[in-house]
Amino acid sequence: MQKSPIFALLSLLALTLAVSSALVGKHSVAARGQLMCGGVPAENVRVRLFRVKQPKKDDLNQMLAETTTGKPGVFLLEGDTNGFPLNETTMQPVLTFYHSCDEDPTKLKKNGYRKFNYNIPGEYVSLGSKPKKTFDFGTLNIQLEFPGEKHDKKFEERKHARV
């Protein structure tokens, strides 16, 4: 029995739609950089990658990835919206930094970490679960005070991974 060209065309269309729908909703982003505290690499800086800007308190369910800088002050983060509900798959990615550069260690518990955000340009958001390019943040001296910087007295650890 020979299959008609219409059947072949419909099969191809169905396959294309299945592949497209698997990709729709999945977005990814990656960022890297180096942080300095004055002339010294900034160690132990918490860096979080959020899907969207956090208005007040961090919604850890919106966090895509997090890391802590080591001795060279370098970070590399990669995250995607896999596992998010379909109505939460768009991205306006934001890096959030928590640090104690130039803070009195004895007052850290009272004052909390210094915290500031940096928006990642939309051109670095890729369709699919693997980023096609990485936003290179460059080298940043976090000794400076940034616009919108504040102290976060209630830094919250992520208790479990998003499924």
Automatic annotation (TrEMBL):
<keyword id="KW-0732">Signal</keyword>
<dbReference type="InterPro" id="IPR001534">
    <property type="entry name" value="Transthyretin-like"/>
</dbReference>
<feature type="signal peptide">
    <location>
        <begin position="1"/>
        <end position="21"/>
    </location>
</feature>
<keyword id="KW-0964">Secreted</keyword>
<dbReference type="GO" id="GO:0009986">
    <property type="term" value="C:cell surface"/>
</dbReference>
<comment type="similarity">
    <text>Belongs to the nematode transthyretin-like family.</text>
</comment>
<dbReference type="InterPro" id="IPR038479">
    <property type="entry name" value="Transthyretin-like_sf"/>
</dbReference>
<dbReference type="GO" id="GO:0005576">
    <property type="term" value="C:extracellular region"/>
</dbReference>
<dbReference type="Pfam" id="PF01060">
    <property type="entry name" value="TTR-52"/>
</dbReference>
<protein>
    <submittedName>
        <fullName>Transthyretin-like family protein</fullName>
    </submittedName>
</protein>
